[in-house]
Amino acid sequence: MPDPHPALLMFIGARYVEQRVSEAIAAAGYDDLTLAMARVAARLSEDGIRVTELAEQARITKQSASVLVDQLERAAYVVRVPDPADARARLVVIAPRGREVLDVARREERAIEREWTRHLGAERMAALKEALADLREITDPWLPGR
Fold first, then answer.
1. Domain limits of the chain?
2. Could you report the per-residue pLDDT of 17-60, keeping only the tens digit for each?
3. Which among 58, 51, 60 is positioned nearest to 90, based on CA atoms?
4. What per-residue confidence (pLDDT) applies to 36?
5. Looking at the domain that runs over 32-94, which CATH code has it been given?
6. Which residue pairs from 75-81 have beta carbons closer than 8 angstroms and sit at least 24 positions apart in sequence?
7. What stretches of the chain adopt beta strand conformation (E)?
8. DSSP assigned state of 3
């Protein structure tokens, strides 16, 4: 493809990062975390999130999200806690083992960013990050304040 759409180029970069992070997580001994589980876990917030919201953000059914959260919970990556805003509801929050995995993922993400900065140069990398942040304003329905 001589002139790929910018979205395809972003997808290729995102897929590369996802693969590298998955490999780093497995190499650190967390080889029971599947890609599907990781994609759902990546949407966890500090305050917790309901399964229905996870499903919506991951663009999967509530049933699929429930199954994946069950798997994450059995593997001790997340816990379910009562929602303080609604006693009938439960929130999914990251557990200590999940935080360990998150630390591994963030280290690998920083390593990739350093590599990309060396390849592009600091100025072009800063411009890329700024442009992508600007695009997020019109593309991310879960952007806080939106």
1. 1-31+95-140, 32-94
2. 999 999 999 999 999 999 999 999 999 988 899 999 999 999 99
3. 51
4. 94
5. 1.10.10.10
6. 75/32, 75/33, 75/37, 77/33, 77/37, 77/41, 77/101, 78/41, 78/44, 81/48
7. 78-83, 86-94
8. S
